[in-house]
User: Which sequence fits this backbone?
Protein backbone atom coordinates (compact mmCIF):
# COMPACT_ATOMS: atom_id res chain seq x y z
CA UNK A 1 0.00 0.00 0.00
CA UNK A 2 1.53 3.32 -0.91
CA UNK A 3 1.96 6.37 1.26
CA UNK A 4 -0.81 8.32 -0.50
CA UNK A 5 -3.41 5.67 0.32
CA UNK A 6 -2.18 5.39 3.91
CA UNK A 7 -2.29 9.19 4.18
CA UNK A 8 -5.89 9.14 2.97
CA UNK A 9 -6.75 6.58 5.62
CA UNK A 10 -5.00 8.59 8.32
CA UNK A 11 -7.04 11.65 7.32
CA UNK A 12 -10.17 9.51 7.60
CA UNK A 13 -9.38 8.45 11.17
CA UNK A 14 -8.48 12.07 12.00
CA UNK A 15 -12.15 12.85 11.36
CA UNK A 16 -12.96 11.04 14.61
CA UNK A 17 -10.77 13.56 16.44
CA UNK A 18 -12.16 16.55 14.57
CA UNK A 19 -15.71 15.55 15.43
CA UNK A 20 -14.86 15.46 19.15
CA UNK A 21 -12.79 18.65 18.95
CA UNK A 22 -15.62 20.49 17.24
CA UNK A 23 -18.09 19.42 19.91
CA UNK A 24 -15.79 20.84 22.58
CA UNK A 25 -15.37 24.07 20.64
CA UNK A 26 -19.14 24.38 20.33
CA UNK A 27 -19.49 23.77 24.08
CA UNK A 28 -16.99 26.55 24.92
CA UNK A 29 -18.70 29.01 22.59
CA UNK A 30 -22.26 28.34 23.75
CA UNK A 31 -21.98 27.52 27.45
CA UNK A 32 -21.39 29.67 30.48
CA UNK A 33 -18.24 29.39 32.60
CA UNK A 34 -19.96 27.22 35.23
CA UNK A 35 -21.22 24.64 32.75
CA UNK A 36 -20.02 21.06 32.91
CA UNK A 37 -19.80 18.43 30.21
CA UNK A 38 -19.98 14.65 30.62
CA UNK A 39 -17.80 12.72 28.19
CA UNK A 40 -16.27 9.26 28.12
CA UNK A 41 -12.70 8.01 27.73
CA UNK A 42 -13.27 7.09 24.09
CA UNK A 43 -14.33 10.64 23.25
CA UNK A 44 -11.37 12.20 25.07
CA UNK A 45 -8.74 9.76 23.79
CA UNK A 46 -9.56 10.67 20.19
CA UNK A 47 -8.46 14.24 20.96
CA UNK A 48 -4.87 13.06 21.50
CA UNK A 49 -4.38 11.86 17.91
CA UNK A 50 -1.63 13.71 16.04
CA UNK A 51 -3.08 15.53 13.05
CA UNK A 52 -2.73 18.81 11.17
CA UNK A 53 -3.95 20.72 14.26
CA UNK A 54 -1.10 19.69 16.52
CA UNK A 55 1.68 18.16 14.39
CA UNK A 56 3.88 21.21 14.99
CA UNK A 57 2.86 21.59 18.63
CA UNK A 58 4.97 21.07 21.71
CA UNK A 59 5.17 17.55 23.09
CA UNK A 60 3.09 16.86 26.17
CA UNK A 61 4.76 17.82 29.44
CA UNK A 62 4.82 15.53 32.48
CA UNK A 63 1.77 17.42 33.78
CA UNK A 64 -0.03 16.92 30.46
CA UNK A 65 0.77 13.20 30.57
CA UNK A 66 -0.68 13.00 34.09
CA UNK A 67 -4.03 14.12 32.64
CA UNK A 68 -3.87 12.33 29.28
CA UNK A 69 -2.24 8.96 30.03
CA UNK A 70 -5.02 7.50 32.24
CA UNK A 71 -7.60 8.35 29.58
CA UNK A 72 -5.48 7.00 26.76
CA UNK A 73 -4.74 3.80 28.69
CA UNK A 74 -8.43 3.29 29.47
CA UNK A 75 -9.35 3.64 25.81
CA UNK A 76 -6.55 1.38 24.59
CA UNK A 77 -7.54 -1.24 27.17
CA UNK A 78 -11.21 -1.19 26.15
CA UNK A 79 -12.46 0.70 29.19
CA UNK A 80 -14.79 3.63 28.79
CA UNK A 81 -15.22 5.68 31.94
CA UNK A 82 -17.34 8.82 32.04
CA UNK A 83 -15.89 12.07 33.33
CA UNK A 84 -17.52 15.37 34.15
CA UNK A 85 -15.45 18.23 32.79
CA UNK A 86 -15.46 21.84 33.91
CA UNK A 87 -15.01 24.61 31.36
CA UNK A 88 -11.35 24.77 32.42
CA UNK A 89 -10.96 21.02 31.75
CA UNK A 90 -12.59 21.36 28.34
CA UNK A 91 -10.17 24.15 27.43
CA UNK A 92 -7.24 22.03 28.59
CA UNK A 93 -8.32 19.12 26.36
CA UNK A 94 -8.82 21.51 23.44
CA UNK A 95 -5.29 22.77 23.99
CA UNK A 96 -4.05 19.18 23.92
CA UNK A 97 -5.94 18.56 20.68
CA UNK A 98 -4.93 21.72 18.91
CA UNK A 99 -1.53 22.80 20.22
CA UNK A 100 0.25 19.97 22.03
CA UNK A 101 0.84 16.37 21.17
CA UNK A 102 2.09 12.90 21.86
CA UNK A 103 5.27 11.54 20.32
CA UNK A 104 4.82 9.48 17.14
CA UNK A 105 5.56 6.36 19.22
CA UNK A 106 2.81 7.20 21.70
CA UNK A 107 0.43 8.11 18.88
CA UNK A 108 0.84 4.79 17.05
CA UNK A 109 -1.34 2.58 19.34
CA UNK A 110 -4.07 5.22 19.35
CA UNK A 111 -3.99 5.56 15.56
CA UNK A 112 -4.06 1.79 15.15
CA UNK A 113 -7.07 1.43 17.44
CA UNK A 114 -8.86 4.20 15.56
CA UNK A 115 -7.97 2.45 12.28
CA UNK A 116 -9.58 -0.73 13.58
CA UNK A 117 -12.68 1.28 14.53
CA UNK A 118 -12.69 2.90 11.09
CA UNK A 119 -12.54 -0.50 9.39
CA UNK A 120 -15.32 -1.83 11.63
CA UNK A 121 -17.74 0.96 10.73
CA UNK A 122 -16.70 1.43 7.08
CA UNK A 123 -19.44 -0.17 5.00
CA UNK A 124 -17.57 0.25 1.71
CA UNK A 125 -15.04 -2.58 1.59
CA UNK A 126 -12.93 -0.69 -0.96
CA UNK A 127 -12.39 2.15 1.53
CA UNK A 128 -11.24 -0.08 4.40
CA UNK A 129 -7.61 -0.19 5.42
CA UNK A 130 -6.41 -3.45 3.92
CA UNK A 131 -2.73 -3.25 4.85
CA UNK A 132 -2.53 -2.47 8.54
CA UNK A 133 1.24 -2.92 8.59
CA UNK A 134 1.70 -0.23 5.94
CA UNK A 135 -0.63 1.98 7.96
CA UNK A 136 1.45 1.29 11.09
CA UNK A 137 4.61 2.32 9.21
CA UNK A 138 2.93 5.59 8.25
CA UNK A 139 2.07 6.20 11.91
CA UNK A 140 5.71 5.64 12.85
CA UNK A 141 6.93 8.06 10.19
CA UNK A 142 4.74 11.01 11.17
CA UNK A 143 7.78 12.79 12.55
CA UNK A 144 11.07 12.28 14.27
CA UNK A 145 10.41 14.61 17.21
CA UNK A 146 12.72 14.36 20.16
CA UNK A 147 11.58 15.03 23.70
Assistant:
Amino acid sequence: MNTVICGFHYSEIARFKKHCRNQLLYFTMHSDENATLRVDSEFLAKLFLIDADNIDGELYTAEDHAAADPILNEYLNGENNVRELSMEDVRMFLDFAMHRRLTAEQNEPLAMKLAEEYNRIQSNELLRISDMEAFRKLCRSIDNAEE
